[in-house]
Design a protein that fits this description.
There is one protein chain. By secondary structure, the protein is mostly helical. It folds into 2 domains: 47 residues; 105 residues. Helices cover 58% and strands 10% of the residues. A 3-stranded antiparallel β-sheet has the order 1-2-3. α2 runs antiparallel to α4 and α2 runs parallel beside α5. The longest helix is centred in the N-terminal third of the chain and has 43 residues. One of its GO terms (molecular function) is beta-tubulin binding. Pfam families: Casc1_N. InterPro entries: IC97/Casc1_N, IC97/Dnai7-like.
Length: 202
């Protein structure tokens, strides 16, 4: 009886090990497919990953990120200009509601505008760290510039939010507002500020 139970448990253990190995292989294959798909997409869009040992390629990426952010900021228009509190007052069911409340829900995550370039910069920093090759002085300099770019991106986003508290921050109470943005494994930001309202003298 004990021998039979032992054999059954042994068979279950063997099957469990086989199952975990199949799952491990499936996860590896899926990750490989995602990496190949990203590499192909980057190739088609002429945005191949830079060599972590090539300062010119790293600087090219850095200049592209800076240009993209500056162009995005210059072309951005405040969503408050499109607000129309009378948009619900219509008999046309296909007309889009453009009240401040509706537009705030659509454009509330201003961090999404900065997230793509920050993610690319973090991926390049990771490739530099994992390259395993001796780091030259120029590569170390570009690495520090990429780190500064990430820091500057967060500063610009913070300045943009703080410059228009009533537009980009959520009201907590009559005198305080906050802003929250989170991207898994990339960024978590929380800001709070006093609202621009007159306060009674002490």
């Amino acid at each position: 009886m004990e021998q039979k139970e032992y054999n059954q448990r042994r068979m279950l253990l063997v099957e469990s090990v086989k199952l975990f190995r199949r799952l491990e292989k499936a996860a590896y294959d899926h990750g490989r497919q995602l990496a190949d798909r990203k590499e192909w997409t980057d190739f088609l869009s002429c945005r191949t990953a830079p060599s972590p040992a090539s300062p010119p390629e790293l600087r090219e990426c850095l200049f592209r990120w800076v240009y993209q952010q500056e162009a995005q900021e210059k072309s951005s228009v405040s969503w408050t200009l499109a607000a129309d509190e009378r948009s619900p007052l219509t008999q046309d069911p296909s007309r889009k509601r453009n009240t401040r409340k509706d537009l705030r829900e659509t454009f509330r995550n201003i961090g999404e505008a900065y997230l793509p370039t920050v993610c690319e910069a973090l991926a390049v920093l990771e490739s530099i760290q994992d390259s395993g090759d001796p780091m030259s002085g120029e590569v170390a300099m570009v690495r520090d510039e990429i780190r500064k770019f990430i820091s500057d991106s967060l500063d610009r986003m913070t300045f943009r939010i703080g410059s228009n508290i009533t537009r980009d921050m959520e009201t907590l109470d009559p005198v305080m507002s906050d802003f929250q943005f989170q991207a898994d494994n990339v960024l978590a930001m929380y800001l709070w500020s006093f609202r621009p309202v007159p306060l009674a003298p002490d």
